[in-house]
Design a protein that fits this description.
Layout (H helix, E strand, L loop, with lengths): L20 H49 L36 E3 L20 E11 L2 E6 L6 E10 L8 E10 L2
Antiparallel strand pairs: 1-2, 2-3, 2-4, 4-5
Length: 183
């Protein structure tokens, strides 16, 4: 008889050994943790992607306003600074012929007038988006100091892009683009 064999114990068991309950539970926890980690990473990716998409759309909408107003004069050639905002004969954005006409203007799909492209036409398929424009006279020596409308040769224009999702209570500012109009 060989030295390594025992006479009362078989060399190989006839029944295959299975997993114990503890081993199965531990494997379930490990696999479940891995699946949960993958789901959380994917959710985080989708949130970041959504934020990046909104930021890009917001910057596009603000830039469209900047392009629309870039070559316009500060004030109406006929009325000068007498009328701040649109003149009485300027009923729609297609009639606006100077920068101060755009003060406090809002363009939105919900209002039926936007958001607008640089060509003053509505951009389709952007529900919930709006463009708001603020125009202010500023002191030419201190651009942070606002002066009464029509009293300065320096204008600051802000194009604000906001988004309100279907479940949001109020619009959220996404982008604010500010520039100086010195001429």
């Amino acid at each position: 008889m060989p030295l390594h064999a025992h006479p009362t114990l078989p060399l190989h068991s006839a029944q295959p050994r299975g997993f114990t309950l503890i081993e199965t539970a531990l494997a379930t926890v490990i696999v479940g943790t891995g699946v949960l980690a993958i789901m959380l990473a994917q959710q985080s990716f989708h949130k970041q992607n959504d934020w990046a998409s909104r930021a890009a759309t917001g910057m596009r909408l603000a830039s469209e306003i900047r392009e629309m107003t870039f070559n316009l004069p500060r004030h109406d050639a006929v009325t000068g600074t007498e009328t701040w905002g649109p003149e009485s004969n300027e009923a729609s954005v297609s009639d606006y012929d100077d920068i101060d006409d755009f003060d406090d203007a809002v363009f939105s799909a919900d209002l039926g007038n936007g958001p607008l492209s640089a060509m003053r036409t509505p951009i389709p398929n952007l529900p919930g988006w709006l463009q708001r424009i603020e125009v202010a006279n500023v002191d030419p020596f201190d651009l942070h100091t606002t002066v009464p409308n029509g009293t300065s040769e320096m204008l600051v224009i802000e194009a604000i892009a906001e988004y309100q999702g279907p479940y949001d209570l109020a619009p959220t500012e996404i982008t604010r683009l500010r520039w100086i109009q010195p001429r």
